[in-house]
Amino acid sequence: MLKKLQWSFGLLLFFFVLPVIAGQLPFNKQASTPIKEPEDKQVVFAATNLPEQSALEQTKEQEQTNEQTKDPFKVLLVFTHSQEAYQPMVKVVSGKAAVYDEKTNIFNLKDTISKHFSMNGIQTDVLDVDVMKELKLQKKLFPDAYNVVRPYLTKRLEEQSYDLVIDLHRDSAKRNATTITHNNESYARIAIVVGAEHKNYRWNTAYAESLSASMNEIVPKISRGVISKSGDNVDGRYNQDLTKEMILIELGGIDNTEEELNRTIAIIGKAIAKSFITEKQS
Question: What InterPro entries does the annotation carry (predicted)?
Fold first, then answer.
């Protein structure tokens, strides 16, 4: 009995001491120095082209700034013979054919002109004076129209500067002289008049010739050319002595339709952009 107790006690002691002995064995020991996890290292690549990129970005930003601050091309519209009319347009409204009308006239084209000019990057102002009405109020005759509008135009030019001033008229010529067909569409032809009785008329002529040439490049023969006027029975200046950027355009004739006029107005806008805006920006 005593031997059994001794054997049982010895067995219990063995199992009690076994974990302690096992912990001292070398193959079960943990390393005394903790294992560190590898650090994530960021690899930095040298940007050798940064100065070039910065210069390019600055150049682009400067170009965008210049584009935003660029002055628009400004045109002033003048209608010295404000009640000149086109027979087909008057007939649609009143049923009668007339070449002068107080309501349906060339002055009423100002909004159409402004719209087409705006589409070509042109800022348009209108000298808002019914000159023919002023003639009657001042009891003056038709040839006095340029003198009547002159103070209004002078005042405007003192207040603002323009890249181009256009005095728009309707020619008295018949349809065969004022109409042309291009690509199966009819256009009202134009003529540009320059008064040669002032010292700077060559400047006005240069503007007129440039615009005429550009229009003919877009629609061949739409411009009848530049007509220089001086001598008896003509004004000789047409107020173009007030600014070298002023020209007079005969827009179609008495027989041209509204559709033909609209097509030609669109061509005038494109030609102004081609002749003057591109040149101004270059």
Answer: Spore_II_P
